[in-house]
Amino acid sequence: MKFNMSVVPMLLHKNLGLAFKMARGFFKMERTKLMKRHFENYDHMKNFCLIYMKLTPLCNLRCVMCGQRGDKGVLKGEFAANEAKSIVPVETYKKMIDELAEKKPVYYLWGGEPFLYPDLFELVRYIQSKGSFCSINTNGTLLEKYAEQIVKDKWNVIFVSLDAFKDVNDEMRGPGSYDRVIKGFEAINREKKKQGSNLPVMGVVTTVTNKNYKSLADLAVACKDLEIDLHMYNLGTYTNDEIFAKHKAYFKEKLGTDIYCLEGYNTGYNENIDGAELHKILDTIHSTNYGYLSITVPALNPEKTHEYYAKLDVPVRNHCIVPWCQANINYNGDVCFCADYSEYPLGNIKEQSFKEIYNGERANKFRHAISECEGGIFPGCLRCYQNMLFGKKIKGY
User: Fold this and answer.
1) For helices 361-371 and 241-255, what crossing angle results, to 10°?
2) What angle do CA 97, 147, 233 make, to 5 degrees?
3) What is the pLDDT of residues 57-112, one digit of tens each?
4) At 178, is the secondary structure helix, strand, or coil?
5) CA–CA dist 282, 275 (Å, integer)
6) Is the N or C terminus of the chain more exposed, i.e. has fewer CB atoms within 10 Å?
7) Is the pTM of this model over 0.90?
8) Where do runs of H (alpha helix) occur along the chain?
9) DSSP assignment of 60-124, as one string?
10) Has residue 12 got a pLDDT over 90?
């Protein structure tokens, strides 16, 4: 299976500048893995390279496995609508982007559904004008409407969530969602030809669950017609009652806060996945030339695939580097290291500079707390997507 760095050669064929910006981010993350862990009296901005921005709690889909709006999601109905009143104005984001301009971090915009953020286009233009790499994760159902402007603005990268071929996908994400995504890809491709552009780079992200894993190969074949550049298979973020209880107790003891967001991943959609069968499916996908790059996150040794789903208490990645080189901005302006721990904000960009927050007392308290854990990860981080991307691979996995 291919690893994260495989993205860079793919980008080289599309756009040299984008490849350089992404390679710069990967280099800083790899350097962070090797560096001594610092805490107080240190400028953590030296290593900063990646920022996630959850622009809105609102979404037009209700995907069953989603930790936000799914079966056990924490951002449902009226609550999300009320929370949306607190979204960060674009001018506040611009001030933060100006502050970070020298670092040129990789930006990852998501939600909710980012197209429901009212100033999305202005925000993307501003990020890219500062020389940073900007990627947007969307459910793809609104791409058709905005295709002309997206291509005109030369967006860098768009990742579209698509979980299976038509019927299975619509069972997970809602009736008609598959066809709307396909129309979105078709519209983007038409505009790229019309405007003579090879941007944006287009990718599909598939979250593996017990509902869709047997049909992944069908989706891989279907994606041949979408003219995509990349297909990423996310093995999924999962937890259970025991892990969640340990995690809550540790956060209460060390950081004095309750945790709720993580419970959104206690869905059971990992149960009864046949690891051997899944590996055969993924092996077939990775060994077939569909005309685009295929990546699995995390890339696991074949005999360990079953453990990822059946033994959630067994770590496959550890020594998280996120608090030393990355950050998440919640839709209300709260800065957190982890998107799933928004109950422990480090500060708010509406009130403080990003650097003050990132080097602040609460940030260092978090760094100490995670460092003191076995393996340098919290109890609830065992299947964390960020740690699967950037954590240290445990021998044998």
Assistant:
1) 130
2) 75
3) 888 777 776 655 555 556 556 666 677 789 999 999 999 999 999 999 999 999 88
4) helix
5) 10
6) C
7) yes
8) 7-14, 16-34, 77-83, 90-100, 120-129, 143-152, 166-173, 177-195, 216-222, 241-255, 275-286, 305-310, 322-325, 354-358, 361-371, 385-390
9) S---TT-TTTSTT-SS-HHHHHHHGGGPPPHHHHHHHHHHHTTT-PEEEEESS-GGGSTTHHHHH
10) no
Q: Which band of pLDDT confidence, cut at 50, 70 and 90, is reported for residue 367?
A: very high
**Strands 134-138 vs 106-110: parallel, antiparallel or unpaired:** parallel
Determine the Cα–Cα distance for residues 298 and 300; give it in Å rounded to an integer. 6
What is the pLDDT confidence band of residue 20, given thresholds at 50, 70 and 90? confident
Nearest to 355 by CA among 107, 51, 29, 36: 51
Tokens of 394: 């445990």
- Identify the CA nearest to 397 among candidates 307, 262, 293: 307
Buried b (16+ CB within 10 A) or exposed e, 360-382: beebbbbbebbeeeebbbbbbbb
Please give the share of the chain, as a percent, with pLDDT higher than 90. 73
Q: Which two tokens stand for residue 263?
A: 């419970």
- DSSP-derived letter for residue 358 is H
Assess whether the previous peptide bond of 118 is cis (omega < 30° from 0). Answer: no
List, edge to edge, every strand of the sheet that includes 157-161: 293-297, 230-234, 201-207, 157-161, 134-138, 106-110, 50-54, 326-329, 334-336, 347-348
Asked if 178 contacts 170 with a C-beta cutoff of 8 angstroms, the reply is yes
Give the CA distances from residue 281 to residues 87, 192, 287, 307, in Å, rounded to whole numbers and listed in that order: 41, 32, 10, 17
Counting every residue, how long is the chain? 397
Show Cβ contacts of residue 245 under 8 Å, excluding neighbours closer than 6 positions: none
Q: Quick check: helix, strand or coil at residue 250?
A: helix
Residue 183 CB-half CA count within 13 A: 10
Average of pLDDT values for 163-182? 89
More confident call, 75 vs 185:
185
The confidence score (pLDDT) of residue 4 equals 57
Which residue, 110, 112, 109, 181, is CA-closest to 145?
Answer: 181
At how many degrees (to 10) do helices 177-195 and 166-173 cross? 110
